[in-house]
């Protein structure tokens, strides 16, 4: 099978059930999810490079997330929704919430906005978070214009929270403090 088909040379591409322009809002949405998946792959490479077992939990979760991001793209690729073929579900969102709760317990209380960065691991996960937010915005735009599966939007919303928490855990596990936004007020309540 050849990797090139020449079918897109005129600026069109296929989604399941239609031919659309390559900058169609649906293509933009799942294309941004594909971009996010690539950055998650880069995060896996960065985190695995120095792993001596302390990152095994995170690496396994990120691999799961990469598969789930493919599921998100698959669900968005249908021009007409077919609930029987959708892969993203509420259990995936619930799993992200459980991971967030577990990791949040490993981080110091937060009272201010924090700057992305700290360790290399945290910095790349913050990049995942920001691209995830962009993917979510693209899915919201799609939903306003065309049918789209709601669980994908919910999943992306929770996934960005997961990335935020994991970035903080990456710093905490290495004894690196998050850098607070110094001109910001105390906007978060203290955890109990």
TrEMBL record:
InterPro entries in alphabetical order: CblAdoTrfase-like (IPR016030), CblAdoTrfase-like_sf (IPR036451), PduO-typ (IPR029499)
Top-rank EC class of the record's enzyme: transferase
Pfam families: Cob_adeno_trans
Keywords, sorted A to Z: ATP-binding, Cobalamin biosynthesis, Nucleotide-binding, Transferase
Domain annotation Cobalamin adenosyltransferase-like: ranges: 3-170
NCBIfam families named among the record's database cross-references: PduO_Nterm
Subunit structure: Homotrimer.
Identification of the protein by name: Corrinoid adenosyltransferase
Origin species: Candidatus Cohnella colombiensis
């Amino acid at each position: 099978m050849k990797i090139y088909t020449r079918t897109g040379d005129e600026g069109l591409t296929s989604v399941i059930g239609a031919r659309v322009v390559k900058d169609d809002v649906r293509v933009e949405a799942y294309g941004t999810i594909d971009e996010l998946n690539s950055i998650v792959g880069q995060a896996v490479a960065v985190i695995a490079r120095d792993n001596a077992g302390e990152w095994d939990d995170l690496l396994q979760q990120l691999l799961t997330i990469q598969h789930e991001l493919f599921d998100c793209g698959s669900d968005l690729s249908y021009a007409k929704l077919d609930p029987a073929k959708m892969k993203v579900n509420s259990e995936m969102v619930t799993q992200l919430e459980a991971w967030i709760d577990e990791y949040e317990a490993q981080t110091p209380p937060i009272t201010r906005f924090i700057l992305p960065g700290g360790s290399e691991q945290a910095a790349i996960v913050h990049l995942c978070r920001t691209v995830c937010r962009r993917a979510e915005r693209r899915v919201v735009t799609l939903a306003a214009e065309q049918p789209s599966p709601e669980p994908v939007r919910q999943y992306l919303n929770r996934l960005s929270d997961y990335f935020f928490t994991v970035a903080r855990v990456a710093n905490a596990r290495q004894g690196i403090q998050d850098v607070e936004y110094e001109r910001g007020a105390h906007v978060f309540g203290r955890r109990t």
